[in-house]
Design brief:
The chain is 55% helix and 13% strand. By secondary structure, the protein is of the alpha+beta class. Helix 2 packs antiparallel against helix 3 and helix 2 runs antiparallel to helix 5.
Length: 265
């Protein structure tokens, strides 16, 4: 009887140890899976993401600055075209155009056309009616092409939408501490940069269409500083999106080129 009792206790002890070992193994497996699922980014990677996001913020700022101004292009008559002491020039952007009357005496004597727009004078600004009644604007007897102007404005607005979506992805990535949202953010910022550059190209085509609509009034035209802001913003946004692609990779692509030290002694 006592032998049976000790044998039964020994078997129960073995079963308990085996059960504990299985439970520990399952717990370790679960813990390993949990660690894989809750992979957190390091402090250095988080700092790099913030730096790349700062680059994109610069592009967003330049885009908003350029889109909100009406200095995309300047159209200037010859300064002696009217035969009096004043001359006229125009400058406009995506949403609004202005006609300025300047004094000829204030213009550089070596300059043949009226301008630049920074000189003091009277200004008459109006918003375009492309988005309301669909009417074309007439500037110095030349008619705009509303389809091209609308396309440029729509692409610019779409680029702003993609910038907002990319910023939301980066904010979620930093708040959650996971690099999962870096690839969607990179797609949004690169696409926004491409859309900005396309908007500039289409706007330039609209200027060419405006100039070719009538030849009765000679005009000198040049793209202004707003286009420089928007064009620079497009390049910066593409650069920032490319940085997010590199940061989303699980390893640095140039590490394979580095020689590995032999740890064997």
């Amino acid at each position: 009887m006592w032998s049976n009792f000790f044998v039964q206790q020994d078997e129960e002890g073995r079963i308990g140890v085996a059960g504990a070992g299985q439970a520990g193994g399952l717990g370790g497996m679960k813990g390993g899976r949990g660690q894989r699922r809750t992979h957190k980014m390091s402090d250095s990677q988080e700092g790099k993401i913030k730096l790349a996001f700062f680059v994109c913020i610069i592009g967003v700022t330049l885009t908003v600055l350029g889109m909100g101004t009406e200095f995309w292009v300047e159209l200037a008559q010859p300064k002696n075209f009217s035969g009096n002491q004043t001359c006229q020039m125009a400058h406009y952007g995506l949403w609004k155009g202005c006609i300025r009357t300047l004094w000829v005496a204030d213009i550089d004597p070596e300059r043949t056309s009226c301008g630049p727009a920074e000189l003091p004078g009277e200004s008459n600004c109006t918003y375009f009616k492309f988005f309301t009644s669909g009417e074309n604007a007439v500037i110095f007897k030349k008619t705009t092409n509303k389809n091209l102007n609308l396309a440029a404005a729509i692409l610019a607005l779409l680029s702003l939408t993609m910038m907002v979506m990319g910023s939301i992805c980066i904010a979620m990535s930093l708040s959650k501490g996971v690099p999962f949202f870096l690839k969607p953010a990179s797609f949004c910022f690169i696409l926004s940069g491409v859309l900005v550059l396309l908007s500039v190209l289409i706007f330039h085509q609209s200027v060419q269409a405006l100039l070719s609509s009538d030849h009765s009034v000679p005009l000198h035209h040049e793209l202004s500083w707003s286009v420089a802001c928007v064009g620079s913003a497009g390049a910066i946004l593409i650069l920032g999106g490319s940085l997010f692609i590199i940061l989303s990779l699980p390893f640095n692509p140039w590490q394979k080129c580095l020689p590995h030290k032999n740890s064997a002694t």
